Amino acid sequence: METTLIILKPDAVQRGLMGRIISRFEDKGLQVVGSKMMQISQDLAATHYEAHKERPFYKGLVSFMTSSPVLVLAIRGNDAIAISRKMMGATFGSKAEPGTIRGDFGVSNSFNLIHGSDSPEAAERELSLFFKQGEVLSFDRAGDAWVYDMSGGKPE
Ligand code: IDP
Ligand code: MG
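Above: inputs. Below: predicted complex with inosine-5'-diphosphate.
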């Protein structure tokens, strides 16, 4: 099982889209195992997006991400990182396919609603930036037996 870091960005929170976006992950069968609302500090935004430091959009990105509260989620499932990225859609709202979160809820390229880790290494790094020890939980859901086929001993 993989765990990925998802951030519902300030535009998603301000536009009242938190519930509908979380529902998409739950509907898919992915498990929410951590959640917190927070106002991201300048330092945290800079660390989180340090790979983009030299990009022309970096300053605006940090200012956007720190402008208003976000909802940070830890989401778990088989292949959760790739599945979540697919559900998010292409980076730009103007390009993202209908059926994806960015494609269905936005048109902007910089206000694109959601962040999701793009690799296992990024997920590990980002989860530890946003969640303290013990804040990402492990628990069985009553319906898990019908989410994955476990007849082969592993989730299929
Ligand atoms: P991703 O969020 O789909 O992984 P990245 O290329 O990692 O996309 O960029 C991180 C974030 O930076 C994007 O989600 C978006 O908010 C912002 N961003 C990326 N490229 C641009 C751009 O060309 N103009 C404005 N904002 C951008
Ligand atoms: Mg990225």
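The CA atoms of residues 2 and 80 lie 6 Å apart.
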